[in-house]
Design a protein that fits this description.
It is built from 12 helices and 13 strands. With 265 residues, the chain is of the alpha+beta class. It has 3 domains: 10-61, no CATH class; 69-178, no CATH class; 195-265, no CATH class. It has a 4-stranded mixed β-sheet. Strand 6 and strand 7 (118-123) form a beta hairpin. The longest helix is centred in the first third of the chain and has 12 residues, at 36-47. The protein is elongated and about 70 Å long. It starts with 9 loop residues before the first helix and ends with a strand.
Length: 265
């Protein structure tokens, strides 16, 4: 197979590319492997300030006309990276704020990487997905090649890892922004995770937007049938929590429904 020559020089590509890896540069200009000449050229460009190093092996062209796509960085840090949690909500346009931390999933741990005021934090995916070989469940690929969890999975993942969600109030506002919700997908995902308390957490939040999201009938019943035997908590235990009998769930007083009998603790 004939190898096509690059259309632009290594220098032009490196200094004008918003984001690239050393491996990509090697494939593009070193044919099958990274050559010493490619390394030397990249080193000179760094010394000249025409290329900036995001982290080891990942670079940004100093003369690039486009800014770094923060959601595209994780795939340069880990090949299996998937943008997740609050960062996925941001990507889908259903977050109320943009954090200075981008969260992503990867089976290979990595220390935080900070660049231009943004921290990239790696999180291990749930063990249940690893064991079931379903790491790509509702993982979408965007037009700009960003791998990101879908809206429904992102909401559930945030409920599993609340510290990466922005908090329950933030999730509640995100649900309010959704035009629709795929209950079949989320129920399949909940079955994979095998965490009964998630039915209580998500069911309660969906109930708050039941009219808009059409959370009723068989879909709602599917959640109610799978509630945990013990009392679950929407967030951490705290004084003033109230028990919502329908979902057997303890919630903050500010979220407790006014139309349903609740018990204060």
């Amino acid at each position: 197979m004939r190898v096509m020559k690059p259309r632009v020089s290594l220098t032009q590509f490196a200094q004008s590319s918003p984001l690239f890896t050393l491996e990509e540069l090697g494939h593009r200009y070193g044919k099958k492997k990274l050559t010493r000449s490619v390394r030397n050229m990249l080193y000179r460009l760094k010394r000249q300030g025409r290329v900036r190093q995001l982290t080891k092996g990942v670079y940004v062209g100093a003369l690039a006309t486009a800014s770094v796509n923060r959601y595209g960085v994780p795939s340069k840090l880990r090949k299996d990276a998937v943008v997740a949690f609050h960062s996925a909500l941001e990507f889908h346009g259903i977050a109320n704020q943009v954090f200075q931390t981008v969260y992503y999933l990867s089976v290979r741990p990595r220390k935080d990487v900070a660049f231009d005021g943004v921290t990239y934090h790696c999180v291990a995916p749930p063990r249940q997905l690893v064991r079931a070989h379903r790491l790509d469940f509702q993982v979408e690929l965007s037009r700009d090649r960003v791998r990101v969890t879908g809206r429904e999975r992102s909401i559930v993942d945030c409920l599993v890892f609340l510290p990466y969600s922005g908090g329950v109030d933030e999730l509640d506002r995100s649900l309010a922004m959704l035009p629709s919700f795929d209950f079949d997908i989320v129920l399949e995902y909940l079955r994979l995770l095998r965490m009964p308390w998630l039915y209580a957490r998500l069911g309660f939040l969906l109930d708050r937007h039941a009219e808009k999201l059409f959370f009723k009938g068989k879909s709602r019943d599917a959640f109610l049938k799978r509630l945990p035997r013990g009392v679950a908590y929407l967030d951490r235990k705290r004084p003033g929590n109230r028990w919502v009998p329908t979902w057997n769930l303890m919630v903050a007083e500010t979220l407790a429904p006014s139309t349903e009998q609740v018990v204060r603790t």
